[in-house]
## 1
Amino acid sequence: MEAFKQNKMELPKQAYDDLMSDKWLFGRGCSDMKGGGSIQLSLIEEYSKEEDFNGNIVLISVPDEENLSAGMRGATYLLKDLKEKYNLNYILMLNSEPHERGNDLKPTIYDGSIGKIMPVVYVRGKLAHVG
């Protein structure tokens, strides 16, 4: 970030303004899967402190989001097996993948992505991130 701040690397004006505001982290992957994983682990830690928490938490972590979600699609079999073995009733799924939003105080909630919940028209091309 210091190299960016010293303008040793050229940034678009909006990105440079964001950098100088100190409201953003800059670095490859720092706010992508690593950020999402940190959020999930922090939430599990917080819920583990709740004395009256009623329920279970299942964490599925997959390293292949850029491969048409093969890991998550494969994990559905595990989730089904766990549901049957332990009589679970899944009521909520959170995808803690950081994402774009127009207003810092209003989160955007997605209810699926390619290969999981939403119907999709498949067009062959270069693999790219959901954003």
## 2
Amino acid sequence: MNKKYIIRLSESEREEALRVTTQLKGSNQKVRRAQILLQADINGANWPDKQISEAYRCRVSTVENTRRRFVEHGFSECLNRKKRDTPPNPKLLDGKQEASIIAMRLGAAPKGYANWSLRLLARKVVELGVVEQISHETVRNTLKKTV
């Protein structure tokens, strides 16, 4: 079957991939991607995807995706994988809201309480209208960042 994405590594790319695989530089995924690129290189070993997947104990789709990423995005992005642009969960509080929670925690506890609990802080923040709703876990994470 003719491959849609053909890998042709330059000398410098081949040397970089060899350096990563021989010195085991980087994460195990990076090493595996370098090994896949070396074996899939049309000017090098030129192994079929099935043989590469068996040799490096990965799925055929992993090899195919590595080929596609190399052709579409280039060697360095294929090897290193780019970081996420946005976090998986958006921030729930802005800086001003976080500051008010921290300031409240540092202040005296309400009458009848010895200390601030996370749930008590969460209720008080909602009472004061800082946010519409908040979980005690969000309060915990906000306070944890400041320690």
